[in-house]
Amino acid sequence: MGVLDPLKGFGVTFRNLLTKPVTIGYPEHKTPVYPRFRGRHRLWQFENGLEKCVGCSLCAAACPADCIRVVAEENTPENRVSAGERYARIYEINMARCIFCGYCEVACPFDAITLEHSYELSEYTREALIYDKDMLLEPAPKQPPLRPNVPGDPTPAVDA
Ligand code: SF4
Ligand code: SF4
Predict the structure, then answer these.
(1) pTM over 0.70, yes/no
(2) 119 and which of 39, 74, 113, 136 could share a cystine (Cβ 3.0–4.6 Å)?
(3) pLDDT recorded at residue 81
(4) In the chain, what is the greatest distance between 2 CA atoms, to the nearest angstrom?
(5) DSSP-assigned beta bridge partners for residue 110
(6) Residue 44, in any domain of the structure
(7) What φ, ψ does residue 33 adopt, rounded to 5°?
């Protein structure tokens, strides 16, 4: 090691003291995802409340991870759930197996399922990672807006 090497090292340190940090203080600060990011799934309804999913199982057939379970049932005049002949009485996705490939979204002929931008999906049990239809019909939790990552800024980025 040369005599000047420690000084060179300190030079690097002092130079970076003056530059903008590249790290993000997650989870208080979050970077926005790309528009085509594939995160948590969502099932969609029409404005009149009818579900777009008709229980055809094409998404389940296309899923390479075999993690979608659809059990269809006929709509009746007394119980009309979807706009088609049938609806998904059970619609489940095992998020522990999902690889977020988006094939289910592509396979769906009715745009009934999409992958949204929410990615905070950790749970403590495997059971909690099986999303049922009610969960999937809920809008995905919004990602909070990006705030500048100011060192020492006590303001949380997530609105309480
Ligand atoms: S994103 Fe891919 S792996 Fe996940 S449920 Fe859809 S098809 Fe299956
Ligand atoms: S989400 Fe689409 S492809 Fe899957 S069962 Fe419903 S209508 Fe069929």
Answers:
(1) yes
(2) 39
(3) 97
(4) 88
(5) none
(6) yes
(7) -90, 165
Q: Is position 18 within any domain?
A: no
Q: Is residue 156 part of a domain?
A: no
d(CA 143, CA 115): 14
What are 102-143's pLDDT values in tens digits?
A: 999 999 999 999 999 988 898 899 999 999 999 999 987 655
The count of domains in the chain is: 1
CATH code for the domain in which residue 101 is found: 3.30.70.3270
Determine which residue's CA is closest to atom 7 belonging to ligand 2: 53
pLDDT surpasses 90 at 152: no
Q: Which domain holds residue 104?
A: 32-137
Q: What is the pLDDT of residues 25-69, one digit of tens each?
A: 888 888 788 899 999 999 999 999 999 999 999 999 999 999 999
Pocket test for ligand 1, best of 66, 69, 98 (most atoms within 8 A of CB): 98
Contact 93, 60 (CB under 8 A): no
Residue with tokens 């777009």: 52
